[in-house]
Write a structure and sequence with these properties.
single chain, about 200 residues, alpha+beta, five-stranded mixed beta sheet, 8 helices
């Protein structure tokens, strides 16, 4: 397949949209690499530390501590071609979307200057170890992992080799990819405001 590569982003983009939703939302996204690239593994760990579940950094800060959002989540969307890491905040009633967006950006920026803790890193590695085992229980699971390695990585050995890759990742690796990809010129901020029909619900 001859799929042209998207040109690199050279400046931050900010967009405001309307949708029939009851609450405003903000999305902060950064362009990242593809599944199987050496940087993809520490990026997955960075995404889990930042935005996976109620113990993640952005959930704790935006929902529990500052009460800017009723929910906050995100992921590193790694596929065959370069894609995005994104973090989302559903803005709490009475709070400003701009404040939620800047709080998301601040937490992502903090990952660049303050390394993840050994405890955060180990917790994330434990999650990957759990998912690795549970994702290979059935014959169908094993076939999916083998096909993923063959089609996306072009190397069937990664079906087993990724376990060791994740276990070798250090806090320095996570900070390095954050500094590489989570830059202002690589960032898109989307604000989604309730349309009239959404606000009336």
């Amino acid at each position: 397949r001859d799929i042209p590569r998207e040109p690199p982003q050279t400046a931050e983009k900010r967009v405001t949209l309307e949708a029939p939703w009851p609450l405003p939302a903000v999305v902060v996204a950064y362009r990242i690499t593809y599944d199987g690239h050496p940087d993809s593994y520490p990026l997955l760990i960075a995404a889990k530390v930042l935005s996976d579940g109620q113990s993640s950094r952005i959930y704790r800060t935006l929902v529990y501590e500052r009460q800017l959002a009723v929910a906050a989540f995100g992921t590193a969307h790694l596929i065959e071609d370069p894609n995005v890491f994104y973090a989302v905040a559903i803005v709490a009633p009475g709070q400003k979307p701009a404040a939620a967006a800047e709080a998301l950006i601040a937490e992502i920026e903090r990952l660049k200057t303050t390394p993840v803790t050994d405890r955060e890193l180990q917790r994330t590695k434990n999650q990957f170890a759990r998912d690795y085992i549970l994702g290979r229980e059935s014959i169908q699971d094993k076939a999916l992992q083998l096909s993923h390695a063959a089609v996306l990585h072009h190397d069937i050995r990664t079906a087993d080799g990724e376990f060791d890759i994740f276990q070798r990742i250090t806090t320095t690796d996570v900070q390095r990819v954050a500094q590489t990809y989570f830059t202002a010129q690589n960032r898109t901020v989307i604000t989604i405001l309730p349309s009239q029909s959404g606000g009336a619900q």
